[in-house]
Amino acid sequence: MAPDHGEDDFLLCKANGIDPVFAVTDDGRYREDWAWLPGQGSVINNKFNAPDGPICSDLREAGALLAASADFQHSYPHSWRYKAKIIFRCTPQWFIPMDQSMRASSTLGTNGNEGRSTGDNSAVMTLRETAIVAIEETRWVPARRY
């Protein structure tokens, strides 16, 4: 399993407690400090993917290689614009859910441990709804010319 390379592997690894390692750099090469194939060129190249290349050799030694053939060409997704091969590059990220209620955050004070009264909790809006209301209530006044 390769949690850094593809959605299916990522989800399978996540379900089995295997974290991504962020092995690929911005320019599509393995990190210099990566123990396996450090900085040895682009992840997408024939040297790595050949039946006698390092990927198949290591899988063969581990008894995990299902098949290897010079006739088989590994397929990659392609950029519709540039017609170039692309890979999934895993990077650390975080997201704010915009569709969930702000109920939990509405009970925190400014220092994070004080409670505050929210009144009727049935009217608590999501972050997205709150942002839309704020945008709609904004009145734009043109700059005055002197």
Features:
mainly alpha; 146 residues
C-alpha end-to-end distance: 67 Å
Supply Rg.
25 Å
How is the biggest beta sheet arranged? Answer: none
| Low-pLDDT stretches | 108-118
Sum up the overall morphology in one term.
elongated
Mean pLDDT: 76
Number of helices: 4
Q: Strand fraction band?
A: under 5%
- Helical percent range? 10-25%
- Indicate the structural class: mainly alpha
The total strand number stands at: 0
Describe this structure in words.
- With 146 residues, the chain is mostly helical.
- The protein has four helices and no strands.
- The protein has helices spanning 7-15, 46-49, 54-61, 127-137.
- The longest helix is centred in the C-terminal third of the chain and has 11 residues, at 127-137.
Short description:
The protein has 146 residues and is mainly α.
Spell out the blueprint of helices and strands:
Blueprint: H1 7-15, H2 46-49, H3 54-61, H4 127-137
